[in-house]
Task: inverse folding
């Protein structure tokens, strides 16, 4: 399978992509897809909502001459509110059923120009939120969600006339005191 793109919709992370069984033409053997998040440490899992869509880009990506994998397109909606209470990691696993075959695996590929190895984190919902959910693509784990504790929170921020002022709060008491802040532009340039 492959992740094409991810988008945040409040607490829900929508993962767009495709999954298929290699060697099976899904035009003649339509796939049924299911997905779930699993915590590799505890074994707990949560089902995810799956909407199947015909995705022509899947055929271009797969480059199979005699196999149509476009019917394996999906949009998986993940309710991150179910997993954000405890720091850790959750692996996305997809099951494809077609014909008499069934395969379950993590997704390890990203479409060219699609999602990046480190994607945008979910915005914090409240000022007292302690954990942030960050989608990642890992060579071993595949696509997974890292629930990590916040260390510093911005209490307020104002910008104007080329300057930024604000107040930060240490969330992680193990950090000690905050010595300095460095601001970086979208282009990666240090601006303060």
Result:
């Amino acid at each position: 399978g492959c992740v094409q793109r991810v988008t945040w919709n409040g607490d829900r992370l929508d993962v767009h992509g495709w999954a298929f069984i290699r060697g099976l033409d899904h035009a003649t053997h339509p796939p049924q897809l299911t997905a779930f998040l699993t915590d590799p440490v505890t074994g707990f899992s949560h089902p995810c909502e799956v909407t199947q869509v015909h995705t022509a880009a899947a055929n271009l990506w797969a480059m199979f001459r005699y196999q149509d994998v476009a019917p394996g397109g999906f949009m998986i909606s993940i309710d991150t509110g179910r997993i954000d209470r405890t720091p850790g990691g959750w692996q996305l696993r997809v099951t494809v059923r077609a014909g008499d075959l069934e395969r379950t695996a993590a997704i390890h590929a990203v479409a060219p120009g699609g999602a990046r190895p480190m994607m945008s984190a979910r915005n914090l919902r409240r000022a007292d939120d302690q954990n942030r959910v960050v989608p990642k693509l890992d060579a071993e784990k595949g696509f997974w969600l890292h629930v990590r504790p916040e260390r510093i929170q911005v209490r307020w921020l104002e910008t104007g006339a080329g300057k930024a002022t604000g107040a930060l709060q240490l969330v992680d008491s193990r950090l000690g005191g905050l010595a300095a802040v460095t601001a970086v532009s979208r282009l990666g340039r240090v601006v303060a």
The CA atoms of residues 115 and 133 lie 16 Å apart. The helical segments are 56-62.
